[in-house]
């Protein structure tokens, strides 16, 4: 059940209790996996703020522009064999006191600041059009213009080898640089591609596929000003963040976004007053639910069913909610490149009934 009020999901006051600084160090990151047995990087109370560093595993696409000494230390410390079974470099986990399976955590993303003024897009072998475009991998390096909050391509280069080693470092000073996307500008919208709680599964769980725990959702709307709700699966939640981006379109069809490290400020609030099956996103204008599956049809149906459930909590009948989904709900493709594909359904908050359950 989801508890609703006139402004959306009932908001707790969430007055900050403490501020924790969570730097990305070899002891505070885990590369390629969630794991319910991991020791916490930090233990917090409900309502605490966390200032955390999220690092892109694609920094090696141009280490001169995308890496600093602290990142080189992580790359040297964590062996390639320990970056498995996924690819994303995760910061955490964060243990929330009193969080139990079935509870929800409300994560208010307050700010996301790029660590550098550059990012990388890889047209990868897992991209949707890899076969159609000659089965080669191509890196495009983008520069972020803070004055305009736009990004433009600086150069591109091709790589014959597939990206198989998470954190692969290329020798960009020696690569064949080519001009790219002359005159093109893209809006910068920093967000986290991957974040979530530890699944209740023994051993490592890959960061690549998204799921009910969150994970690699790759929705560009999960940025500053957004609130995500995740269902706790193990004691303490064990929440981690990673896979930072500065821009991405729906679909992420080349396989990656503009991958770039971020400093993220967020607040975590423990919620025992409602539950929801899948990762739920709230923005100032929309409620957005996520569906996942082996096919887009399955993912779309899962998103639609969960939105139907959400709307019924406002007092609508199933038939009424179904009609509203068709005339006001927007069903979209989140990503098609993570093995498990994703869809999302969004509906305007001002479309919902005024007399909601409380």
Folded structure, characterized:
This protein folds into two domains: 265 residues, Jelly Rolls (Sandwich), CATH 2.60.120; 68 residues, Endonuclease I-creI (Roll). The chain is mainly beta and 358 residues long. It is built from four helices and 24 strands. Helices cover 11% and strands 37% of the residues. The model has no long low-confidence stretch (mean pLDDT 94). A nine-stranded mixed beta sheet has the order 3-7-20-9-17-21-22-24-23. Strands 4, 6, 8, 14, 16, 18 and 19 form a seven-stranded mixed beta sheet that branches. A four-stranded antiparallel beta sheet has the order 10-11-12-13, with no helix packed on it. A hairpin with a 5-residue loop joins strand 23 and strand 24. Helix 3 packs across helix 4.
Give a quick precis of the structure.
It holds the Pfam family FmdA_AmdA. The chain is mainly β and 358 residues long.
Query: What percentage of residues falls in helices of 4 or more residues?
Result: 10-25%
Please state the second-level CATH architecture of the largest domain: Sandwich
Q: Would you identify the regions where 5 or more consecutive residues have pLDDT less than 50?
A: none
Considering the protein shown, what is the CATH homologous superfamily of the largest domain? Acetamidase/Formamidase-like domains
Total beta-strand segments: 24
Q: What is the highest CATH level, the class of the largest domain?
A: Mainly Beta
Strand content: 35-45%
CA-based shape: globular
Radius of gyration: 20 Å
Q: Helix-strand pattern, N to C? A: EEEEEEEHHEEEEEEEEEEEEEEEHHEE
Strand order of the largest sheet: 3-7-20-9-17-21-22-24-23
Largest sheet: 9 strands, mixed
Overall tally of domains: 2
Mean pLDDT: 94
- Broad structural category: mainly beta
CATH names the topology of the largest domain as Jelly Rolls
Please work out how many helical segments DSSP would assign: 4
């Amino acid at each position: 059940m989801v508890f609703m009020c006139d402004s959306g999901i009932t908001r707790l006051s969430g007055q900050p209790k403490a501020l924790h600084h969570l730097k990305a160090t070899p002891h505070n990151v885990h590369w390629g996996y969630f794991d319910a047995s991991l020791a916490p990087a930090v233990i917090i109370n409900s309502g605490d703020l966390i200032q955390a560093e999220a690092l892109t595993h694609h920094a090696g696409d141009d280490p001169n522009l995308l890496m600093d000494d602290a990142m080189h230390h992580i790359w040297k410390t964590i062996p390639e064999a320990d970056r498995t079974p996924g690819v994303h470099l995760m910061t955490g986990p964060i243990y929330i006191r009193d969080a139990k399976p079935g509870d929800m955590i409300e994560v208010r993303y307050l700010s996301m600041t790029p660590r550098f003024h550059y990012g990388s897009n890889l047209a990868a072998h897992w991209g949707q059009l890899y076969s159609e475009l000659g089965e080669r991998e191509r890196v495009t390096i983008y520069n972020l213009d803070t004055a305009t909050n736009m990004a433009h391509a600086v150069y591109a280069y091709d790589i014959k080898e597939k990206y198989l080693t998470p954190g692969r470092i290329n020798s960009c000073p020696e690569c064949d640089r080519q001009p790219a996307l002359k005159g093109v500008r893209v809006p910068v919208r920093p967000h986290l591609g991957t974040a979530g709680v530890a699944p209740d599964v023994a051993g490592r769980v890959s960061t690549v596929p998204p799921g009910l725990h969150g994970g690699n959702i790759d929705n560009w709307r999960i940025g500053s000003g957004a609130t995500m709700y995740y269902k706790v699966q193990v004691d303490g939640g064990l929440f981690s963040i990673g896979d930072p981006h500065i821009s991405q379109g729906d679909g992420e069809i080349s396989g990656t976004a503009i991958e770039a490290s971020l400093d993220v400020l967020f607040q975590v609030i423990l919620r025992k007053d409602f539950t929801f099956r899948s990762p739920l996103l709230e923005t100032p204008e929309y409620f957005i639910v996520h569906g996942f599956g082996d096919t887009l049809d399955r993912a779309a149906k899962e998103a639609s069913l969960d939105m139907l459930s959400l709307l019924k909590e406002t007092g609508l009948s199933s038939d009424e909610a179904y009609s509203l989904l068709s005339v006001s709900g927007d069903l979209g493709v989140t990503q098609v490149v993570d093995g498990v594909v994703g869809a999302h359904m969004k509906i305007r908050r001002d479309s919902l009934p005024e007399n909601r359950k409380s």
